[in-house]
Amino acid sequence: MNSLLQSLYFTSEFRNAVYQIPTENDDPKKSVALALQRVFYNLQVSDETVDTTELTKSFGWDSLESFMQHDVQEFNRVLQDNLETKMKGTEADGAVARLFEGKMKSYIRCVDVDYESSRVENYYDISLNVKGCATLRDSFANYCEVETLDGENKYQAEGFGLQDARKGVIFESFPPVLQLQLKRFEYDFMRDAMVKINDRHEFPPTIDLQEFLSDDADRSMSWKYALHGVLVHSGDLHSGHYFGLLRPTTEDKWFRFDDDRVVPVTRNEVFEEYYGGEFPLPPGQPGMRQRPSSKRYTNAYMLVYIREALRDRVLNAGDAPIPEHLLKRIQDERDEDVRRQQEKEALASSLMVQVAGGTQFARHRGFDLSYFDQRQAADNPLFAERMPRTMTLREFIAIYAERTGQKPDSFRLWSMVGRVNKTVRCEQLLPAGDLTLAQVLESRSLRFSELRLFCESFADNAPDPDGLASRPLTEVSLVHVKFYDPARTLIGGVGNIYIHGEQRVADIVPTLRTMVGLPADTPVLLFEEVKPTLIEELDPSVTFQKAEIQSGDIICVQRAIGPEDSYALPLVPDYFDDVQNRVSVCFVRRPSRGDEDYTPDPNNERGLFLTASTKTPYDRIAQWLADQIGMRDPLKLRFFTVSPTGQPRQPVRRMATTTLADMLPSA
């Protein structure tokens, strides 16, 4: 393909015609004409190698097909057919035919009577035999060879009966640009397989084709052709490499176009090296056995000749104006490439810094101190900004303080890590020094592409009469505290507390009551938030060391539940179980039988939404929906599962164990 494109590009009359094709509104991924315009423009102005990915995609080739062997003749015909269709009714209409179309006549002519049956056909290339033909002229003679129909093979001439006849092909005209396909690949009946023909086949610098024209052909101009392109195949049937030997102008200067390498070549290389056949043997020495010759597997596969009388028109047509829309489109893409490169460089020189804590922690209703992904509530955002990788912690603290309205000495930052149990917790206190953000991210092995930090605001810390916060962190731990109110089914952060391993859990209960705003005599329950599926109640009588509480752990506090209390989610584990199984469900009306106007609602614009746990009982779902639509008896509602296309399926059976999970379509 690359070799053929180079050959077509230097045919300036063809290049100009391609530029004249209107492609303003074409999809660049599907338009062959637009993709070819871009390739030609880039070949014309770019100092870099030109990418053809867009062109191959416009043919419908995916990345795998682009690496498969394709026949260049097939590619050429598909390309020209596509362009001719696109050119119809435009300024470029007929350009492909004017350059590449010739006419040939297939005939059967009777010997003894005046009768001839003939058919004139158009062609864009000619496939010539290599096997049994030593030269290009031999191949043309073979193509036009006359077959005699006699004996049992006589021709049935209309009105004359069976007659001796001659059958053959003669050319009515040759196109200005003559593309000759040498049949290097043929079916071998003996091997029952396709094989490559590496026989020697010579092609001349010029050839006069007048002898192969019919008597009626126009001979007002010479039919002498000059060679301007040799497409070469190196390899065998199943694999190989193509390159082109091209003579771009009327000067006798040849170049080898081998993908991104373009080098001058000699006439000897063009007219000797790629004929095929066998390598010449070195002169033998007396008494030495002659080595067997080896075949040349690199040989000409396609030839491009240009009619000498029309060469100036074909090759020196001048440069047609490049379409304005193409220039604008390419400039826009270059601007976009520059923008993306700048963005890429900015991304490479910066990193995302996310900070949890403070009011954000107080309003967090889920696991951990915060979510660092799309689960984080939009009305409770984290501090999240890209910062230069070379920024020091001291500089970042100043910026963070300004952004959040705090004083730099009113808080300190902790690094956060992803634990094995999939939670994200505080790990180490960061010194406000000259360590860069990139060094923090790399040295802590934080397992994230972004830097996640926790802001320990001193105002949020529990009273510390023993001065634990000022002791070395090897002796004490920072623990975060949440408060759960079952009456409101609400949880949130209330602050932080320092503990040491020898303390009993019960020792901090009075401080926790103060932090959550409960009277001093209120019985409380404490739970450790180990991970989403494991919320463990803490034994007040054990030490923190025995309870394995460390920096970054979370303790959830709630008032003890009495026998008279009745809550939907009475305990912290119940709340987190609900969070873990919570889904958003849309309920829509099922169409009645014969309801022809019903259409599925893929965007759920007509439904009622409920956010609930998949463990919610059937009757509670039915009661909620009945209240929403004003129905007195929820038992008169029936639910149906839904197909992926929005169509109702089977009804959901109401049983004592039926839950919302049974109503949802299976994954």
From TrEMBL:
Keyword hit for Repeat: no
Xref: PROSITE patterns: USP_2, USP_3
Enzyme class: hydrolase
Gene Ontology terms: biological process: protein deubiquitination; proteolysis; regulation of protein stability
Substrates-to-products reaction catalysed: Thiol-dependent hydrolysis of ester, thioester, amide, peptide and isopeptide bonds formed by the C-terminal Gly of ubiquitin (a 76-residue protein attached to proteins as an intracellular targeting signal)
Keywords: Hydrolase, Protease, Thiol protease, Ubl conjugation pathway
Matches recorded under Pfam families: UCH, USP7_ICP0_bdg
GO molecular function, one term: cysteine-type deubiquitinase activity
Superkingdom, taxonomy of origin: Eukaryota
UniProt keyword annotation of Protease present: yes
UniProt EC number: 3.4.19.12
Stored SUPFAM superfamilies: Cysteine proteinases (SSF54001)
Residues in the signal sequence: none
Domain USP: 1-308
Gene Ontology CC entries for this record: cytosol; nucleus
Family of this protein: Belongs to the peptidase C19 family.
Family matches, as PANTHER family: UBIQUITIN CARBOXYL-TERMINAL HYDROLASE, UBIQUITIN CARBOXYL-TERMINAL HYDROLASE 7
Full protein name: ubiquitinyl hydrolase 1
Organism: Coemansia guatemalensis
Organism lineage: Eukaryota, Fungi, Fungi incertae sedis, Zoopagomycota, Kickxellomycotina
